[in-house]
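Archive maintenance. Older records in this collection stored only the sequence; we are now back-filling the structure field for every entry so that each record is complete. The fields below show one back-filled record exactly as it appears after the update. Entries are processed alphabetically, and TetR family transcriptional regulator is next in the queue.

ARCHIVE ENTRY
Title: TetR family transcriptional regulator
Organism field: Paractinoplanes toevensis
Length field: 184
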Amino acid sequence: MGRPVNHQRRAELLDQAVEYAIEHGFADLSWRPVAAALGVSTTTLVHHFGTKEQMLETILGRLRERTNAQVGAQPSLAAAARTAWVRTSDPRQWAEFRLFFAVYGRALQEPRLFAEFLDRVVTDWMNALVDAQGPDADPASARRRATLVIATIRGLLLDLLATGDRERVQDAAEAFLAALPPDA
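Back-filled structure field:
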């Protein structure tokens, strides 16, 4: 049996790996460059994260936590959707979301390697958006509205990242957000 994982050290390495992945993207995410940037050995990374794909899923999990923490703290679906859009459309976050879409594409091509990512990529955000609608919301309607928010924001963000046409995309986002019931 190997040495146990030091969870505090793993969390520190994870935060550093997240910043590395955001800066360098998905294509350059391999053991040696990450280890060198973090000042550790590849063995240390394997010990703390397992496989490269597991490390990537862990990185994406941390990024999901950042978004879900902001979205889940909102009092309504409209407020949660606006918070999500403001965060994701912020140019300072674009590298993070380029990474997200790159991994999403790879996960769809290799679902066995990214099963956890695919299981959670919608579910975590869906749960936060359903919860934002309150305990009295009809569950089927709440899930349908949450699905529309997720699909619309991701689509708008993909358009924004691909075209850089902030004015047009922001206008569409504002129209969508204004159409959401304020109390849902």
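Update note: The chain has a mean pLDDT of 89. Residues 71 and 80 are 5 Å apart (CA to CA).
Entry marked complete.
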